[in-house]
Amino acid sequence: MASGGKRIVFTGGSGKAGRHVIPALLKRGHKVLNLDLVDFPDPKAGVFTLKTDLTDSGQVFNALTTHYDFEGYERGHAETAPDVVIHFAAYARNMLVPDNECFKGNVTATYNVIEAASKLGVKMILVASSETTYGVCFSEGKTDYHSFPLEEDYDVDPMDTYALSKLCGERTARTFARRYGNDIYSLRIGNVIEPHEYERDFPTHVNQPETRRRNAWSYIDARDLGQICDLCIQKSGLGFQIFNATNDTITTKEPTAEFLKKYEPNTPVTREMGEFEGPLSNRKIREVLGFKEEHDWRRYYKP
Ligand SMILES: NC(=O)c1ccc[n+]([C@@H]2O[C@H](COP(=O)([O-])OP(=O)(O)OC[C@H]3O[C@@H](n4cnc5c(N)ncnc54)[C@H](O)[C@@H]3O)[C@@H](O)[C@H]2O)c1
């Protein structure tokens, strides 16, 4: 492990986001144990997965003091709680399971992870929240955003169960950070884009912008999400925080102000926005964490 590298327990690392975020964390010198129901998809990545059902609190408490790989046994001492816990496991949208199961599974797993980590003395916890909390992604019919840009102080008001489960996760984070004085950051993650998806999906995203309204014409590159997690880990001492986790720019050809004026004429814009700033703005991670995106969509698709 490189100096400064942390011992990280990561949940849900076998999923769409985690399979890119974990390699990004390993590249930056951290050590990672993956807790998931299924194996990490790339067997060559050197990621050890402990099959753990996070809705069972006993399993979560136990898993947090597991070796990171079999070499752990050579060190001659039992593993202690990790430096960092990153919780991504979830039913990652509605309509995978019935709503009550989505709510129960997500809220229970998030509670169990935050509680166990806090009670075991973990000082830094990151929790996946979602763009859906801004209330339009899974709303019934066409509903309007209250204003642009969407930032962390927005009065989030989702209609749907998945987003509600994510809001409960944010509240749980706030409660435990207040009780334990640790850092718990909720990441309102935008629509996650994997490397192979630019070529396949961006021609539609960019040329038919009406198809991206529910995502507020914003996205997060899965590898840039890895950078965001690493920057959070380096920035301790902020207590409970919410961070939008998105890339810098809008997924349209027109500049932001022009685009919003044309497509969302009734929604107020509350401050001057950057020429191509994403409506689901990442200003806070740029200013507070020093995020510098590496994967602007224009590198992969030229409209
Ligand atoms: N994909 C997106 O566009 C997006 C957008 C915003 C937020 N998010 C959030 O980011 C996180 C990661 O999303 P993703 O797209 O990688 O999801 P995913 O569905 O691809 O992966 C989720 C992983 O969690 C695991 N998991 C589910 N329930 C579990 C349990 N009880 N115990 C252990 N593991 C369990 C699954 O096996 C899976 O590997 C989720 O919390 C999701 O809600 C995703």
From TrEMBL:
InterPro entries: Epimerase_deHydtase, NAD(P)-bd_dom_sf. The lineage of its organism: Eukaryota, Fungi, Dikarya, Ascomycota, Pezizomycotina. It holds the Pfam family Epimerase. It comes from Friedmanniomyces simplex. This is NAD-dependent epimerase/dehydratase domain-containing protein. Residues 8-206 form the NAD-dependent epimerase/dehydratase domain.
